[in-house]
Queue: 2 jobs
Job 1
Amino acid sequence: MELIDGNQIAADIIAELKASVAALPGRKPCIALVRVGEDPASISYVTKKQKTSAEIGIESRLILPPVTITQDALFALIDGLNTDPTVDGILVQSPLPKGMNEVAVFRRIAAHKDVDGFHVLNLGKLAQEDTTGFTACTPAGIMELLKRSGVKLAGKHVVVLGRSLIVGKPVALLAMARTEWANATVTVCHSQTANLPAITRQADVLIAAIGKAEFVTADMVKPGAVVIDVGMNRVPDASKKSGFRLTGDVHFPTVSPLCSKITPVPGGVGPMTVALLMTNTVKAHRQNSASAR
Ligand code: NAP
């Protein structure tokens, strides 16, 4: 069994981006990070995004509206960033407070600054295999992990557990795309899927993104499969200072001995999501600078 080291692969991408940003003439790329309220997980994700931006030489602008902000006021804030020529990318950290329409917020961000890749135009471009769009960071990170680990998907059966807009759907589109490292045969499973273990056992590559701690057990995995564990579940643990431990959607101790390759949690998909957000920000800067000329 080989561990896919997301920390190392993300560090390689960050080093590549740092070199390309250093070579840029003029204004450096800039990302606006909007975090509404004080959700502890969001605080840690946004802090990581800020630190990684600084490491690469990307300017980050932290905007912290209170949890009481209205949807209209958040729209006005986004409108201001959309028209600010010094901002290349906009990220609104999810989850948003209850009562806000998250999809409407995703749509409000100008498509050419939508580095999270959830705007309808970017999701449409993904379906059309138009590479000028932005691909959602976690799915793009998963594809990059597979590629940089030498896993070619052509002829393989990829089973995706989960059909969310953020992970399941876009990663299924990417895996079936007519591109060099993709061309997979894809099955997408969800909470209404019957005989789930019989389907997951067919997977040459199993991508688990359902948000249920240690859901995938050894009986659900074909020996020799590649397993990508997207789950980030906080499980109460009194022995930890934080009071919780992070665990994936895969029961690592029993599944990992069966696999040819597997990602750990933490240290697998998580760091890749941040690295691909940075890739998208540098791409937005390049495209926005070219269209301004
Ligand atoms: P989500 O929006 O809650 O979607 C979960 C999906 O799993 C849904 O499609 C749901 O089916 C399906 N599902 C739930 N229970 C199931 C079951 N018992 N059997 C089969 N399918 C089931 O979650 P998400 O945003 O995609 O996130 C999934 C996990 O990935 C979470 O742990 C999240 O924290 C993690 N995540 C990690 C990163 C990272 O950077 N590492 C990024 C994003 C998300 P229905 O559609 O039928 O409800």
Job 2
Amino acid sequence: MRTKFCVANWKMHKTVKEALAFLQDFIPLVDEINDREIGIAPTFVCLESIGNALKDTNIKLCAQNVFYEKKGAYTGEISPIMLKDLNVEYVIIGHSERRKYFYETDEIINRKIKACIDEKLNVIFCIGETIEERQSNKTFDVLKRQIEKGLENINNPDALVLAYEPVWAIGTGMVASQAQIEEAHAFIRSQLKELYYEKADMIRILYGGSVTPENIYSIMNTENVDGVLVGGASLDPVKFARIVRYEEQRRNE
Ligand code: PEP
């Protein structure tokens, strides 16, 4: 059984004050939920205060990025050890915004994943195709390459969560169809099986891309979807709580 996982990726949004105000509203809306995991990835500068506010709650502290070295002369970077020290449990790696704006390659992503696993941090590894790649029938080639290179020499998948995030669906309101999600997740599962055999069945695959309370019910009821990574809609406590409580949203579809 794979435990469902709903993760908020706040990107470069919310000051410490705003983030704490979000939690005041959000925690009571989800505090009795214990059959799924909930994660929040605030900015680095919010990690300590949000981490303190999340103590004794059912919500996991996540980070949006990391560097692959342990320490040293790397101005502006943050190491896995530093995240661990703040009780971060999951790190998002390979988000398409990092690939696009910060030129992160598959090789860099692979080093980051390894560095996190070495420090016993869990990883949410994002993959997904651009619209041009989809339109030229390269979706599977791209996913295969991202998986093979991103997970090169990573022999134990216990700390891994995958996130399928078609780039064209992120922040655009253009959610992937149930058929597109099902097909991509099945392909990702098959690739994971080639790498990890029966252990691949334990790896959760999240969907990300314009998830809202209005579309969450059908997304969560898609084969091989084990949760969601949510950007825009996770900034609002009521909307994100409705996404976490996805079974209750059927009437909205
Ligand atoms: C994301 O940034 O991972 C994401 C899926 O964003 P949005 O939900 O806004 O499309």
